[in-house]
């Protein structure tokens, strides 16, 4: 549970599946390709750490600082929160009142008397309010029933009668989170908003949807979201369609997912975790409507639900609102027994082995993956045991220097780690670890290495320094509780659910002070022993262990496609003529239903905000810029916030413009070396330990962003030839540890050990492996990066540092490192020398700090001496002003881009069962005015037309578009798409659709308002303190004025139907449109038959 609340920040649970996109952050990962990230065509400052939480030594002392900020809060607020514990309601009985002091959360657990529902009401000061309904939904087979129902529930209900109220909410609410997830044993429906009226609107729609969905009355929903047979012409073959069907085909195309799923099955042979709640594409078509309805009636009953509220809204109103939905149900205790998750006994007397296969492409090297998996417990764990496990997991795998991770990577037996260590979000905890990219003959060597390492650990234990480092890392993050844009209340809910779902106390699960103290006491008296005992009991001597090996198959992809074809054709043969007519009829009925607009009456059932509910002012965050601070030559940027809990968030940016373009592709690996290979007197393990013991984490990344030229008119599209290009070292620490943070920054910058050939090869191989799997899992983003590179220099730089070209670079660097290491080392050393040029480097340095006043004051002397010790001459030359001059990479980049731009249709082949289809161009040419309304229209297109045509009708998991007002770049993208050329046709018809919509909107002010509200919602997300600082920093570095932002907001609010028309005209004439698609060889061959030709390239 402890690691689970922390990991939420980076990935959410590995085992969960969401209704759209990957269930991360408020704007889910799909959105990451659109909205804000494309305003600055660059990677923003990296505040996301793989394991984002580290913290320092003098535990008790620092602790008091973090607590002090909490105590600073007015007593009044605390009083108000405490009062919420007195609230009662006649329809509910109180089961428990509790205060989780760790998070200032005042909790009441109620039981709704009539229906038996449990409701946890959490009052905090957070205005980002969260609501969730969680149901225990253990599946019994691989039909994906729980997952398909999760999707389907959101497609209309008794009170809210549109086809897709969920999409309506996506389009036009201020939600900060709106999604649903399926776990192996539960289904969660979650909404969040900072606006109270909006919040209650969202809750009403979700509550009605869960208990009274259209899906259990109308089989069309199952057909659309789950599976159906499609046929439009009797001569054509039958086709399987369905959103979840294709979503899961995408999942089953990824070797990483295959390994993980199979690993889970292998250690839970007897209980519900043995089946895939997401659904196996070969089994999904077996799901019948009767089973589907039955599953809903069995598990979607209030007695089997856990309802959650958190935030600063009124408790009585929460109870009142839910009573309206609950009171029509009578308690059904049998659903509780029916849904209870059985414990999987640790019953293996010897380790088990299985071999599974993954589809490997033509020229792809035939490597194997494996994962060793342990079932850790078959009885409940104590809070102390859970925390100890979390720390142990960090000791073994938390950083690249952790013993198990390091040993595996340094063995050279494989390319990247699999399994990810501890996973404890379900009833029982598991530990999985292994390697991918392993030669066939080395599989058993990897197995031996893992087991030997664990045995050694159980005998020799960990050093005091290692333990302090890991413990502090976990503690820092527990206290900071920084969930980024992910609502804190949701993190809290998911944390409580790890106990509540299994009928234990929801609030006990969140308290960490007591077990933390127990663990510290235990370590103080007997050192490493508690960890050694645990390794011995749960891993070394635990025979309930499996090894899953994933072997390559060159024929699997074809076999799967053939199987599906055979299955479909035998179905077709078995059908009579009239059966076929019936399928054609149903196909047409479904399409007609999907393409029909909701009636105004139906639409009126969905509660919505009005334009007058929106804030007119664009939010700005504090910023103060001090050039040449203390005559250091360095610019310091500060963001003074009300509270950062005693923590300083600091970034140091160092200019890269003196590098030649040829060296730019080396930067991603160079930034890794800065952190991973040790620096100065520290070897890699010592450096990692220092970071863990004294700071809250350090990361190194690249920031390359196009900027507005000085004095430029920000309302017109920019050329992107003025750029800022920096290496950024970011970290966080409490103010008393700031000296250490600065010292480490300086060491990593000037004295990183670049000369480790083995480490460089290891990092390169890991990068190759990561890039290849991302092409398979997120082909849309590969396609988008490629297309951007054809139009804008910033896009080109992204491509050569993270796209397909970068993958090729990595492959050639692996060869160079192995064949001529001195040459590569020389390049790295020169790169550093060039960046740290004595004369100019100070002028290109920026230090960005976010903190509360006390923090900023306290760290001032440390900052002064840090500035003193930085490399470079304080009174050296001024760097070229890139807000005036074109960036030096631009001329050469444009030459090389010419080659890319001549490609108008590229196809990238990967082994997969689905496609990722992209088409792009410049909607606005350089110097053309970009109105704020363009953001409304592009969002409208994404959540309306593309959602309906690519996802709902096309059967893809996602269909969307991205638009950058800065560069004018516009792209269409699809995600896990069963179609290829048909999707391109959908894109091509978008402009005409918008033209017709413009006419409709003239007489439909509400639909227009919906589009505007949603766009404003995107601008007003909930931010953590460090995000407020980094947002304002980004705005500053791209040279965007507050007046411009306000003007854009005003224009968004004033969007008219004619703006849709104008946008449509532009889309029609999209400048130099081009296409990039990631898909299988077979799909490209099929497309060629339909007249779509591509220049084909193998990615692997
Ligand atoms: Zn899904």
What does this structure look like?
With 1100 residues, this protein is of the alpha+beta class. Among the domains are: 89-340, Cytochrome Bc1 Complex, Chain A, domain 1 (2-Layer Sandwich), CATH 3.30.830; 352-486 and 495-553, Metalloenzyme, LuxS/M16 peptidase-like (Cytochrome Bc1 Complex, Chain A, domain 1, 2-Layer Sandwich), CATH 3.30.830; 903-1099, Metalloenzyme, LuxS/M16 peptidase-like (Cytochrome Bc1 Complex, Chain A, domain 1, 2-Layer Sandwich), CATH 3.30.830.10. 46% of the residues lie in helices and 17% in strands. The protein has 40 helices and 27 strands. Strand 3 and strand 4 (118-123) form a beta hairpin. Helix 13 (383-398) packs across helix 16 (464-480) and helix 26 crosses helix 27 (779-788). The longest helix has 21 residues, at 757-777. It is globular, with a radius of gyration of 28 Å. The structure holds zinc ion. Residues 17, 19, 147, 151, 244, 247 line the site of zinc ion.
Quick structural summary:
By secondary structure, the chain is of the alpha+beta class. The chain is 46% helix and 17% strand.
Describe the secondary-structure layout.
Elements: H1 2-7, E1 17-18, H2 59-72, H3 75-83, E2 92-100, E3 105-112, E4 118-123, E5 129-136, H4 145-153, H5 165-172, E6 175-182, E7 186-193, H6 196-211, H7 219-225, E8 228-230, E9 239-241, H8 243-252, H9 255-267, H10 289-299, E10 305-311, H11 315-326, H12 333-339, E11 352-359, E12 368-375, H13 383-398, H14 403-410, E13 416-423, E14 430-438, H15 443-460, H16 464-480, H17 488-500, H18 513-526, H19 529-540, E15 545-553, H20 556-574, H21 577-595, H22 600-604, E16 624-626, E17 635-641, E18 647-655, H23 667-676, H24 684-694, E19 698-706, E20 723-734, H25 738-751, H26 757-777, H27 779-788, H28 793-802, H29 804-819, H30 821-835, E21 846-852, H31 853-869, H32 890-901, E22 905-909, E23 916-922, H33 933-953, E24 958-963, E25 969-975, H34 981-988, H35 990-1002, H36 1005-1019, H37 1025-1037, H38 1042-1053, H39 1057-1068, E26 1071-1079, H40 1081-1089, E27 1095-1098
Parallel strand pairs: 4-10, 11-15, 17-21, 22-26, 22-27
Antiparallel strand pairs: 1-6, 2-3, 3-4, 5-7, 5-10, 6-7, 8-9, 12-14, 12-15, 13-14, 16-17, 18-20, 18-21, 19-20, 23-25, 23-26, 24-25
Helix pairs in contact: 5-33, 5-36, 13-14, 13-16, 13-18, 14-15, 15-19, 16-24, 23-26, 25-31, 26-27, 26-29, 27-28, 28-29, 29-30, 33-36, 33-38, 35-39
């Amino acid at each position: 549970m402890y690691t689970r609340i922390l990991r939420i920040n980076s990935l959410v649970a590995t085992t969960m599946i969401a209704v759209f996109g990957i269930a991360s952050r408020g704007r889910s990962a799909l959105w990451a390709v659109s909205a804000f990230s494309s305003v600055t065509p660059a990677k923003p400052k990296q505040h996301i750490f793989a394991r984002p939480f580290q913290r320092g030594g003098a535990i008790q002392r620092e602790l008091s600082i973090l607590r002090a900020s909490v105590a600073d809060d007015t007593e009044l607020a605390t009083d108000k929160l405490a009062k919420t514990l007195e609230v009662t309601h006649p329809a509910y009985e109180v089961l428990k009142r509790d205060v989780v002091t760790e998070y200032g959360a005042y909790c009441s657990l109620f039981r709704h008397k009539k229906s038996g529902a449990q409701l946890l009401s959490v009052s905090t000061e957070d205005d980002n309010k969260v609501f969730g309904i969680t149901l225990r939904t253990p599946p019994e087979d691989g039909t994906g029933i729980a997952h398909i129902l999760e999707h389907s529930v959101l497609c209309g209900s008794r009170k809210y009668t549109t086809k897709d109220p969920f999409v309506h909410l996506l389009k036009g609410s201020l939600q900060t989170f709106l999604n649903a997830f399926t776990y192996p044993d539960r289904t969660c429906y979650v909404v969040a908003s900072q606006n109270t009226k909006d919040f209650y609107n969202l809750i009403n729609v979700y509550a009605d949807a869960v208990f009274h969905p259209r899906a259990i009355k109308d089989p069309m929903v199952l057909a659309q979201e789950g599976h159906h047979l499609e046929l439009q012409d009797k001569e054509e073959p039958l086709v399987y369609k369905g959103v979840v069907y294709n979503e899961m085909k995408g999942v089953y195309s990824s070797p990483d997912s295959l390994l993980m799923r199979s690993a889970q099955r292998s250690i839970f042979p007897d209980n519900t975790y043995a089946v895939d709640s997401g659904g196996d594409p070969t089994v999904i078509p077996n799901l019948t409507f009767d089973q589907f309805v039955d599953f809903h009636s069995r598990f979607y009953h209030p007695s089997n639900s856990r309802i959650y509220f958190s935030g600063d809204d009124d408790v009585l109103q929460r109870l009142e609102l839910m009573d309206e939905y609950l009171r029509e149900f009578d308690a059904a205790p049998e659903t509780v027994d029916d849904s209870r998750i059985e414990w999987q006994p640790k019953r293996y007397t010897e380790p088990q082995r299985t071999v599974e296969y993954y589809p490997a492409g033509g020229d792809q090297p035939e490597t194997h993956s494996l994962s060793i998996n342990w079932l850790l417990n078959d009885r409940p764990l104590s809070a102390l045991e859970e925390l100890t496990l979390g720390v142990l997991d960090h000791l073994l795998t938390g950083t690249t220097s952790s013993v198990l991770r390091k040993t595996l990577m340094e063995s050279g037996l494989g390319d990247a780690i699999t399994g990810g260590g501890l996973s404890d979000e379900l009833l029982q905890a598991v530990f999985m670890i292994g390697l991918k990219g392993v030669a066939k003959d080395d599989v058993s060597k990897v197995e031996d290495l893992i087991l030997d390492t664990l045995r050694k650990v159980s005998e020799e234990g960990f050093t005091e320094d290692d333990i302090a480092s890991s413990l502090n890392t976990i503690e820092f993050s527990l206290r900071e509780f920084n969930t980024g844009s992910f609502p804190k209340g949701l993190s809290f809910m998911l944390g409580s659910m790890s106990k509540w779902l299994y009928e234990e106390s929801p609030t006990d699960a969140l308290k960490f002070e007591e077990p933390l103290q127990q663990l510290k006491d235990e370590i103080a008296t007997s050192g490493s022993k508690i960890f050694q005992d645990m390794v011995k009991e749960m891993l070394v001597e635990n025979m309930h262990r499996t090894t899953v090996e994933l072997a390559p198959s060159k024929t699997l992809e074809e076999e799967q496609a053939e199987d599906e074809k055979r299955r479909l054709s035998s179905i077709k043969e078995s059908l009579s003529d009239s059966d076929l007519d019936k399928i054609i009829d149903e196909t047409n009925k479904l399409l007609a239903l999907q393409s029909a607009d909701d009636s105004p009456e139906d639409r009126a059932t969905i509660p919505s905000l009005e334009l007058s509910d929106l804030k007119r002012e664009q939010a700005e965050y504090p910023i103060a810029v001090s050039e040449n601070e203390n005559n250091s030559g360095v610019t310091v940027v500060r963001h003074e916030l009300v509270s950062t809990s005693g923590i300083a968030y600091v970034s140091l940016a160092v200019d890269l413009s003196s590098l030649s373009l040829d060296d730019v592709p080396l930067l991603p690996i160079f930034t890794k070396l800065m952190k991973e290979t040790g620096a100065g007197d520290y070897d890699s393990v010592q450096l990692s330990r220092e970071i863990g013991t004294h700071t809250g984490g350090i990361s190194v990344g690249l920031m390359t962003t196009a900027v507005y030229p000085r004095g430029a008119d920000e309302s017109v599209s920019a050329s992107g030839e003025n750029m800022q290009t920096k290496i950024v070292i970011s970290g966080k620490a409490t103010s008393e540890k700031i000296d250490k943070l600065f010292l480490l920054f300086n060491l990593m910058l000037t004295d990183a050990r670049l000369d480790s050939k083995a480490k460089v090869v290891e990092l390169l191989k890991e990068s190759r492996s990561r890039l290849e799997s991302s092409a398979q899992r997120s082909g849309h983003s590969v396609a988008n990066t490629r297309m951007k590179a054809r139009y804008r220099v910033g896009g080109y730089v992204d491509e050569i540092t993270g796209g397909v070209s970068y993958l090729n670079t990595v492959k050639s660097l692996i060869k160079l490192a192995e064949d001529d290491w001195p040459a590569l080392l020389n390049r790295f050393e020169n790169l550093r020398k060039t960046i740290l040029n004595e004369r100019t480097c100070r002028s290109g340095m920026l230090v960005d700090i976010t903190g509360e006043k006390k923090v900023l004051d306290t760290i001032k002397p440390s900052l002064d001496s840090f500035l003193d010790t930085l490399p470079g001459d304080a009174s050296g030359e001024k760097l070229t002003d890139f807000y005036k001059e074109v960036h030096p990479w631009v001329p050469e980049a444009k030459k090389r881009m010419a080659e890319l731009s001549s490609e108008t249709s590229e196809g990238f082949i990967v082994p997969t069962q689905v496609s990722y289809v992209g088409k792009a161009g410049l909607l606005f040419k350089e110097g053309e005015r970009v109105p704020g309304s363009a953001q409304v229209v592009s969002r409208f297109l994404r959540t309306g037309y593309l959602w309906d045509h690519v996802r709902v009708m096309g059967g893809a998991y996602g269909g969307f578009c991205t638009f950058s007002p800065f560069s004018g770049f516009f792209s269409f993208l699809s995600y896990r798409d069963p179609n290829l050329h048909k999707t391109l046709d959908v894109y091509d018809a978008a402009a005409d659709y918008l033209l017709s919509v413009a006419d409709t909107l003239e007489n439909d002010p509400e639909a227009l308002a919906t589009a505007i509200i949603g766009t404003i919602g995107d601008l007003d997300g909930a931010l953590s303190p460090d995000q407020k600082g980094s947002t304002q920093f980004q705005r500053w570095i791209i040279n965007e004025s507050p007046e411009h932002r306000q003007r854009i907001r005003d224009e968004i609010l004033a969007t008219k139907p004619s703006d849709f028309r104008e946008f449509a005209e532009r889309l029609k004439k999209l400048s130099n449109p081009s296409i990039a698609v990631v898909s299988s060889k077979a799909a490209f061959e099929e497309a060629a038959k339909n007249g779509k030709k591509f220049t084909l390239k193998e990615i692997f």
